[in-house]
From TrEMBL:
Domain Aldehyde dehydrogenase residues, every copy: 13-479
Any GO MF annotation of the entry: methylmalonate-semialdehyde dehydrogenase (acylating, NAD) activity
GO biological process: L-valine catabolic process; thymine catabolic process
CDD domains on file: ALDH_F6_MMSDH
Protein name per UniProt: methylmalonate-semialdehyde dehydrogenase (CoA acylating)
The protein's Enzyme Commission number: 1.2.1.27
Pfam families: Aldedh
UniProt KW keywords: NAD, Oxidoreductase
Superkingdom to which the source organism belongs: Bacteria
InterPro entries cross-referenced by the UniProt entry: Ald_DH/histidinol_DH, Ald_DH_C, Ald_DH_CS_CYS, Ald_DH_N, Aldehyde_DH_dom, MeMal-semiAld_DH
Length: 498
């Protein structure tokens, strides 16, 4: 059985804790590897080595650091097929989707190559008589990234690239469900010229996370995952005096106005609801058609599109639309939620529970599922299902649809489909959600903007990637300087003013 360890000091090392977790191939249901779960002692050693490597990396000029990232991009592109295959085999998503996962991560590495510009401070000549004032952005030291299973390339890259570009060292604790790609990325970074110790990939579970939260060397933590864990890490990390940003779960609503192009809206809902088996934090899981007629026509258009979806293993290449969910437990939880939807009175229009694929009977597949006439009190509305299940909540008016979106505890992404500019503008302006699409169902901003949700989807002040990432991974120092020729007075006891 393949064993996956850690990437420490520029090389692969096996785990020594004696604890491991199974890594599945969700397409077949087989265990394909064991991943080491680090002990606190292993973690502390990795952190100590990172702390030793960090000052040298911080002293490397920003352009040279950026060059390492430039070479890293080239190497990722060289190994794209290998990375995508490893990713799909542990996650289950299709190969084209796996390439997209890697590419959206590369976008942020490319953005981070602009670090020399983004790290420039400000300068004011003669702010007072003979006094110059300037600010600089300095790295934090050793920082940590804790990442989820659903984007095993993109989210680690969103953490690694800006953190390293700013001169920090990083401890990356990826998801134990699909750890191969983060290890491969660390190896590529080493090949690209990153000094040993600057990026340490430590595999593990709650023990490793708690070790990160309590280790005083760790200055900042960037987390992405489910909301309960985000809340835990945010509160314990902040209580320990660290800078923390946590991005949590989601329940993304899409409003479909009566004037929308319903074919476009239906296509968008199918892509955003069922792509990656619904395991995206920006997946649309709730459709809100406005008006009974819009709802009837939308459902009519959705059904044949959904029934046509091809579900299967990533090895089928472009012939499938989405793959299995990540674990048996996830599959069973989703089936349980579909059962609850039926029990609570939602109309099950397309039922994915009976899905069966010859030769892949043990894979973790869930067929595409559509519910109509869902109400906000139902579990399928309240919970983040994180599976290929789309719920339709009918509303009478735009205001009612907006209120529903705004009352939801999550605020990651949302979208409106309409031809009316006034309505779209009103929605974008009033809705309390971090990322908004106008006729765009998955409004994930590009790498040079920032990404982050509101309410229970995001904790902390700064977003991921874009300029915010450079603020998160640096601290500002401001220097007020004058030289002996500029000092005219003797001792001054009053508070200095201009
Ligand atoms: P998860 O919360 O189970 O795991 C995320 C990370 O936390 C992993 O590294 C895991 O090892 C660690 N972890 C798990 N349980 C822990 C515990 N009890 N104590 C300490 N650490 C723990 O999330 P997941 O299932 O891997 O990912 C899916 C979730 O992530 C969904 O809720 C999804 O919406 C969310 N997500 C959010 C965003 C975003 O940007 N808002 C992006 C991607 C995924």
């Amino acid at each position: 059985m393949k064993e996956l360890g850690h990437w420490i000091n520029g090389k692969y090392v096996p785990g020594t804790s004696g604890r491991t977790a199974d890594v599945y191939n969700p397409a077949t249901g087989e265990v394909q590897a064991k991943v080491a779960l680090a002990s606190k002692a292993e973690l502390d050693e990795a952190i100590a080595a990172a702390a030793k490597a960090q000052p040298g990396w911080a002293a490397t000029n920003p352009q040279r650091r950026a060059r390492v990232l430039m070479e890293f991009v080239r190497l990722i592109n060289r190994d794209m097929d290998k990375l995508a295959t490893a990713l799909s085999s542990e996650h289950g998503k299709t190969l084209p989707d796996a390439r997209g996962d890697i590419q959206r991560g590369v976008d942020v590495v490319e953005f981070s190559i602009g670090a020399p510009h983004l790290l420039k401070g400000e300068y004011m000549d003669s702010a007072g008589t003979g006094i110059d004032l300037y600010s600089m952005r300095q790295p934090l030291g050793v920082v940590a990234g804790i990442t989820p299973f659903n984007f095993p390339a993109m989210i680690p890259l969103w953490k690694i690239a800006p953190a390293l570009a700013c001169g920090n060292a990083m401890i990356l604790k990826p998801s134990e469900r699909d750890p191969s790609v983060p290890l491969m990325l660390a190896e590529l970074l080493t090949e690209a010229g990153l000094p040993p110790g600057v990026l340490q990939v430590v595999n593990g579970d709650k023990d490793a996370v708690d070790g990160i939260l309590d280790n005083p060397t760790i200055q900042a933590i960037g987390f992405v995952g489910s909301t309960p864990i985000a809340e835990y890490i945010y509160s314990r990390g902040c209580a320990n005096g660290k800078r923390v940003q946590c991005f949590g779960g989601a329940k993304n609503h899409m409003i479909i106005m009566p004037d929308a192009d319903l074919d476009q809206a239906a296509d968008a809902l199918v892509g955003a609801g069922f792509g990656a088996a619904g395991e995206r934090c920006m997946a649309i899981s709730v459709a809100i058609p406005v008006g009974e007629e819009t709802a009837d026509r939308l459902v009519e258009k959705l059904v044949p599109r959904i029934e046509k979806l091809k579900v299967g293993p990533y090895t089928a290449g472009n012939d499938i639309d989405y793959g299995p969910v990540v674990t048996k437990a996830a599959q069973e939880r989703i089936f349980g939620l579909i059962d609850s939807g039926v029990k609570q009175g939602a109309e099950l229009v397309v039922d994915g529970r009976g899905f069966n694929l010859q030769g892949y009977e043990n894979g973790f597949y869930v067929g595409p599922t559509l519910f109509d006439r869902v109400t906000p009190d139902m579990e399928i509305y309240k919970q983040e299902i994180f599976g290929p299940v789309l719920s339709t909540v009918r509303s009478e008016t735009y205001e009612e649809a907006l209120k529903l979106t705004m009352d939801n505890e999550y605020g990651n992404g949302t979208a409106i489909f309409t031809r009316d500019g006034d309505t779209a503008r009103d929605f974008a302006s009033r809705v309390n959600v971090g990322m908004v699409g106008v006729n765009v169902p998955i409004p994930v901003p590009l790498g040079y903007f920032t990404f982050g949700g509101w309410k229970k989807s995001g904790f902390g002040d700064l977003n991921q990637h874009g300029p915010d990432a450079f603020r998160f991974y640096t601290r500002t120092k401001t220097v007020t300087a004058r030289w002996p020729s500029g000092i005219k007075e003797g001792a001054v006891l009053n508070f200095p003013t201009t």
